[in-house]
Every structure is written in C-alpha cells, then in structure tokens.
Amino acid sequence: MRFIAKPSWLNRTVLGIGLASLFSDWSHEIATTVMPAFLATMGVAAAWLGLIEGVSDGLSSFAKMASGYYTDRLRRRKPIAVIGYLVTTLGTASFGLASSAWHILVARSAAWLGRGVRTPIRKALLAGSVDKHAYGRAFGFERMMDTCGAIVGPASAFFLLGALNHHYPSLFALTLIPGFIATLLIAFAVQEKERKPVPHISFGESLRALPPRFRRFLAAIGLFGAGDFAHTLLILLATQKLTPVLGAARAASIAVGLYVLHNILYASFSLVAGWLADRFDKRRLLAGGYLLAAVMSLEIIFLPVSVWTFALIFASGGIYVAIEETLEDSLCAELVADEQHGMAFGVLATVNGVGDFLSSVMVGFLWTAFGVPAAFLYSAALAVMGSLVLGMNSKLTSSH
C-alpha cells in the first residue's frame, strides 16, 4: 500500500512570506524605533507623534480596503504586493531627508500607503497556500517572523545609533538593505496559485456580500481598535518617566531595550497563539487578549515608575498584540469564503487602521492635554468594551 504524506503547512509560500515579513519589519522598525528620538531633536511634543502614527495608519487603512477589493478581481495578486513592498522600502528610507516634523508625516504616510496596498494581498496569499485547519499556525508563523524583524530592527537601531554617532540620515539609508531583500523574497520565493476569474461587482455589493457573522466580528474589532494606540507611545512614555531618575541618554537606551523585550514576547507568543487558535475557541481567546490590553493600560496608570514596572508594561503589550493580530487574521480567514479573502482582509485592515488613527490621535491628545491617567484610562475602557462585545457574540463561528 502506498502512503502519500500530508503536505506540511510550512510550505514555500508560507516560508517566503514569513521571511519577507521579517526583513520588511527589520527595515521599518529601525526607522520606527528611532523616530521618537529623531522628533525629539526637532523639539516636538507627544501630540505630533500621535498625529504621525494616526494619519499614516489612517491613510494606510484606505489603501488596504481598495487593494483588497481590487485584487479579488485579479488572476494574480502578487505583482501588486511587490510594488507595495518597494514603496514601503523607499518611503521609510526617505525619513533621512526630513528636517521638520511634517516631513516625517509625509514620508511615513507614503511608506504606510505601500504597506496598506500589500497587506490584504499578503494575507490572502497566505490563506490560499494552506488548509483552513492550519490558518492559525500559518498566520502565527508569519506574525512570529514579522516580529523577529521587529526585534532585530530596534536592536540594530540601538547599535547603529552609536556606531554612526547619532547621524540619523545614514541610519535611515541603511533601512534600504532589508527592505529590498523583502521585496525580492515576495517576487521570487512566493508561489501564487492560479485563481478563477471573479465576476466584477461594485464596491458596495462586495461589502454587502460579506456574511453577517463577519460584520459582527468587525464591530468588536472596531471598538477595541479605537483605544489600541501605537506602542511607539510606550517608548516615549518610558523615556519621559525614566529621564528624571536615570538621565535622558540612559532613559532613551532603556526604553529602546524594553521595546526589544516587547517584540521578543510578541514573536514568541504569536506562534503559541496560532497553535491555540487551531485547537480552541478563537473568539474567547481573542477576547482574553483584549482584556490583557486593558490590564496593560491600568498598569501604566497605577503602578509606580521604575524600570521593572515598565518591563511589565512592555511585556504585557507584546503578549496581547501577539494574541490580537494572530487571532484576528485567522478568524477573519475562516468567517468568509475563499473568493472573498482579499475584500475581507482589506475591510479588517481598514477597521483596524481607522481604530489606529482614532486611538493614537486621542491618546496623544489626552496625554498632552490632561495627563497620562486620562489617556490610558480611555484605552483601558475601550479594550474592556471590545472584549465584552466579542465575548457575548456567540454567533461567531469558525464554519462556513
């Protein structure tokens, strides 16, 4: 009797997308990590950082929606993804040309537009390369590799800042190397399956065609996302709070080191979250991740200022983001039909992007106008509300 081995979920496409995510994140995390310090040399306030993060994420969200809708109608999605990776690479490197905060806003927005175009395509390519029972592991692996880049990126930034004597333009120029590698991996390592032509329908009809259970899922995502601020604000918070005790230079170095810890835990728990997602109720696991986000915000408000306190805060942040991103993607892939994956991932990314815009701008504003407790109490309240809505939605299932 002949036995045919079951194909592994870790195939060429999953591995290629994972490696591309690693190198791409390595590239833009170098820039993201030093961006708060670079802005500090310009004398800008926390509100500017929140505006830059929020506007770039908001613009990216609309690119994700358009890309998801458009590419569902194409036989081949991959060429558009290659262009998206290239634009992100060039936009990130252009940070080095900035001389004021609005220059960073423009460069970051351009980079994130490219990122927005490629995101739903990458996720659709990933979902199409594995069986639905392996969605959790495939997306968990991609998140793990992405976050390995987010570990190497800040670590590289930490060492390169010293080696380059804090010459920011040279540092941003070096981001071109991993960025181009990521683009080449998508172009040559990822295999795309031939897709059947999808009949053209309007954008509105595509939205209405998404199943009701997916729309209920999006309601919880949007509520949580409106308070889920960009974690670069944690770097700024740690730097500001630790400076009176440790001095500006040491506080900044420790803040970057804590962000590396954040990303190590993010990477580690992404694969764990994916394994759990393939075996347990995704809805409840995701609701638990949202509650952990609320706990992190409460830690910021109520725990005394120390390096160990911030270590706990950054650790909580890394773990909950691993759960959030892995579970949202794998649950999204299961709630819609295969031919709707591009649109569904685009809509999910758009809802998250709008939430990122609202949360980053609101937290930055509340922090600047009313102080840290008001900003992070807002974040905690929305995280709890999102968890409750998701937890109570028993009609969310994994079946088509």
Q: State the end-to-end CA separation.
A: 35 Å
Structural class call reads mainly alpha
Beta-strand portion reads under 5%
H and E order: HHHHHHHHHHHHHHH
Tally of structural domains: 1
Return Rg in Å.
Answer: 20 Å
How can the largest sheet be summarized? none
Query: Helix coverage percent of residues?
Result: over 70%
Strand tally: 0
**Count of DSSP H/I helices:** 15
Poorly predicted runs: 1-7
CATH topology: Growth Hormone, Chain: A
Task: Assign an overall shape.
Answer: globular
> What's the CATH class label?
Mainly Alpha
Explain how this protein is built.
- The radius of gyration is 20 Å and the shape is globular.
- The protein has helices at 12-40, 46-71, 78-93, 101-128, 135-163, 168-174, 176-188, 203-209, 212-225, 232-246, 248-277, 282-302, 307-335, 341-370, 372-392.
- Mean pLDDT is 83; it is low at 1-7.
- It has a single domain (12-189, 203-392), classed as MFS general substrate transporter like domains (Growth Hormone, Chain: A).
- By secondary structure, it is mainly α.
Distinctive features:
single chain, 400 residues, Growth Hormone, Chain: A
List the helices and strands and how they pair.
Layout: H1 12-40, H2 46-71, H3 78-93, H4 101-128, H5 135-163, H6 168-174, H7 176-188, H8 203-209, H9 212-225, H10 232-246, H11 248-277, H12 282-302, H13 307-335, H14 341-370, H15 372-392
Care to give the gist of this entry?
The chain is an all-alpha fold.
